[in-house]
Structures are given as C-alpha cells and as structure tokens.
Amino acid sequence: MSQKDHKRSRLPNKAIAVVTALVLGAGGVAFVAANASAGGSRRDAAQSGQQSGQQAQQAGAKTIACPDVGDRLRDVPEEAKPEVDKNLAQLDAQVADSYKKLAAGQWDVDASLGELQQKRKGTIAKIDDAIGQVAEPPAGLDELSACEMKATDVKPDDTGGGGQEDAAAAQDAQGGQDQAVQDQAAQAQKKKQGKGPSRADFVDITKVRPNVVKPRQRAGGSTGSFTSKCGRNEDKHLNPDNVIVAPGVSNGAHHMHDYVGNKTTDAFSTNDSLAAAGTTCSNGDQSAYYWPVLRVQNGGQGPDVNAPGGGQDANVGTILQPKSVTIRMDGSAVSKVTAMPRFLRIITGDAKAFTNGTANANASWSCTGFENRQLKDKYPICPQGSDVVRTFNFQSCWDGKNIDSANHRTHVAFADRNGACAKGFKAIPALVERVTYSVPQGARIAVDSFPEQLHKPGTDHGDFVEAMSDRLMRQAVNCVNSGRRC
C-alpha cells in the first residue's frame, strides 16, 4: 500500500472524524468519513451522514487483497510439502478471518492491515524455513506479507436477494419502535444474510455477441471423445475442502464444493484412498471431479448457514443441484493424445481471480441455446426456458513428468490458439466439464468463493484428480485418437 493510502484526512480544528463501516448485503464494506463540528448541531451531523451515505453509494465496497504466495512457488521438495501446504492454508484462513472482521465493522485500516501483515509474515517465514531445511528457499517470499484494500463495484443496495426480506423481518421484530431503530435492526440483519455479488456482475445473454473461436482441425489431429456418466451429485457429496491445494486441512477452500465421480474425496484423500473408493461414474471412472456450488440468493436459507464453508465463510443461500453434468475428454486439433498419468491433478480457473487478476481466470458462463456466447467475468441472465451453463475447459498439455507442481499450474498448460502444445509439453485428452442449472426466473445466483472474493463470477474454477484405472485410460485415449465417440 502506498504512503498516501495510509494517511488520514486532516480535519478542521474542533472537528472529529466518525468512521463507519457500512456492511453491504453483497459481503463488501464501504468506509465513510462523516465529519461534524464539535459544536455543530444534530442537523449538521445528520446532513453530513446523508452526504457520507451518498459517497458510500458512489464509492462502493472494499475488500482485502493479498499477494498469492502459493502461486509464486515453483519448486517445493516432497519432504517440505506437508508443512508448506499447511501454512498456505493458514494464509487463506488469516485473510478470511480478517475479511469477517471487515464485514462486521470491526476494522481499522491501518491497525488491522498491520496486524494481518504480521501474521502473514510469520506464516511465510515458516514456509521459507520448511523449504530451506531441504533445499535453497525461494527468493522474495518475505516481500509478499503486505496486503491492501481493493475497491469494488459492490454498492450498498446490492443485497444479494435478501434486502426486502431482511427489512421486513427487522420491522416485525421491532414492532412499534421508531423507523430509525427498525432501520438499524434491518442493517444488523443484513450482516448475517445477503452475501451475493454486485448487480453489475450480471448480463443478459441475448445482448452478448457470439465469441467462441475453436482451432481448425488439422491432418493428424484427434477427433474422438470419451464420456464418463457420473450423475449430478444425487448423493449430496459436498464439503469445503480442497485436496489439491490444501491437503489435510478441513475447510481449506472456505467455500462448498460439489463432487461427482470418486465417492470419498475430501481434504484427507490420498492416491491410495482414491484408488480404493467407489465411484458415481457408470464406467468405473474413480477420478474426482469438483467445483464450487452455485446458490440462489434467498436470504441465507440452507443447511450450512452456520457451517464452515457456508454461512461462516459468507456463502449463503440455497445450493442448486445441477440439472445435468457432462464429463468429456476431447482430442487435439493438431496431434494424437497420450495417456494422462494416474493421479494427475489439474485446476482450471482461479478461485482468487478478483484480487489476483484475471490471468488464470478460465471458467465460462452461458445459457442453453446460446453457448456460442461465453462469459468469463459475468453471470448470465438467461431467457425463460433456458438453463444456466458453467463450462470448465482444462489444460490439455502436460510436461510429461509431474502429476502436480508447487503452484498446481506449471506442470500443465493450455494449447495455443492453433491447438498446439508448447515445446516440452505433450497433448493429453482435453477434459471438459459442463454443468447446467435450472434457475428460477428472476432469481439471483452466486458461486461460492473465498469470502474476500465477493462471489465474483470470474473466481469460478474446476478441479480434477485423474484416478482412472490404466485400462480405462487406455480406452479413453484409443477412442479419442481413433475418432470414435465413446
């Protein structure tokens, strides 16, 4: 953060700064300085407060943005991984806890950011030490401890679908009390409910121009596909873990995941436990396929409203069960594909894209009947009779050696615009997950996210642990390379 950002405004003599935090239904917070002369009237203060409210409306919310330490790692020795993973998860927990204080109005910009930086500095030092015991530690990790406030487009009236209901509930609870008390009660209720995204995060899909461009199929390419029918999570396999990014840590994701395929996937899964587990896939595919749940923003009703990954992490509303789930592996436009190694891990998209930036944002939103129009940073408003579609296209180039990497990205890559893999990478089957939802007309939706990411659509992401038997993977590769649809 710049020195300018740390400075407080200078006030006239005998003036005081009343700093208030307006907690927004969308989970964001706008800071307002309401200045009133020490000898001024209540009317002056009220007018000042009204002006401050207007300023908050214009300024929108703020959230906490911290450097992503995990994304900066490139080489972590196997011996150090458990300690590194544990401390990376601790960094996420520190930001989530700080954001909860921000959303509750218990936040002083300078003091609270300084406290968060000190916590992060100690945790990053543990990561540095864990690596340093067995290898040369990466340079510059200690420079990633400082966080800053990030402006957003969330406004005070972005209530996430709970605003009117919250106000009515507060009025009923307060009975005959005056309007000011009722308004105060309504605001307190909003702190507990309505954690949806900004209104600006939605767009009418019919107003979007077709934008899908596919590489031209070349001679020697692979035109087949292999589909695993794995259901749509009828068993309600849900948890807020992430075995790829935070193995061994409960609630490592701070948002709820939907799972199909492997029946036992959670934070404590191992290659051996995945290989021994049952599956929801009809062909015996034991791979783990998972993604953040999608919710209807209806005032926070749901079984996990008080649970980790749910309401405790600002993820509220009714979880939508997918209407359909398609798990398909496609070929390469320019070459044959080679088998994926068993237990390969791939993440597509970035759960922290709102604060990290959009370089790794990749999940797509659309509507049935309009899938030649894909959105990376907006939720679609679909016409009546059309379903919401989420599409996760996974990296289809592999380095030929590693089933994972320190930042869970550099061992795989996307093909270029012509469909070719970069030097040193080989083509593997291209996994595509397509998930549809029947959303009530007019309802607002939000994808689960880390609390400080404000449920932005660009933070959507898909996760995959390949656990097919060698026989089934050979079958998939043969189908793809021979041009068959299996």
Q: What is the CA-atom radius of gyration, in angstroms?
A: 24 Å
* Strand neighbour order, sheet with most strands: 6-12-20-16-14
Low-confidence stretches: 1-59, 160-177, 188-194
Q: Mean pLDDT across all residues, rounded? A: 83
Shape summary: globular
- Give the number of helices: 10
**Strand tally, please?**
22
The portion of residues forming beta strands comes to: 15-25%
Summarize the structure.
This protein has helices spanning 3-6, 42-59, 69-72, 81-103, 109-132, 163-174, 179-190, 271-276, 353-356, 470-482; strands spanning 15-23, 29-37, 62-65, 148-151, 202-204, 225-228, 238-239, 257-261, 288-292, 294-296, 318-319, 324-330, 345-349, 364-367, 379-381, 388-393, 397-398, 412-413, 426-427, 430-437, 445-447, 461-465. 25% of the residues lie in helices and 20% in strands. It has 3 domains: 3-60 and 157-185, no CATH class; 64-151, no CATH class; 199-482, no CATH class.
Commentary on this structure:
With 486 residues, the protein is of the alpha+beta class. It contains 10 helices and 22 strands. A hairpin with a 5-residue loop joins strand 1 and strand 2. The N and C termini lie far apart (54 Å).
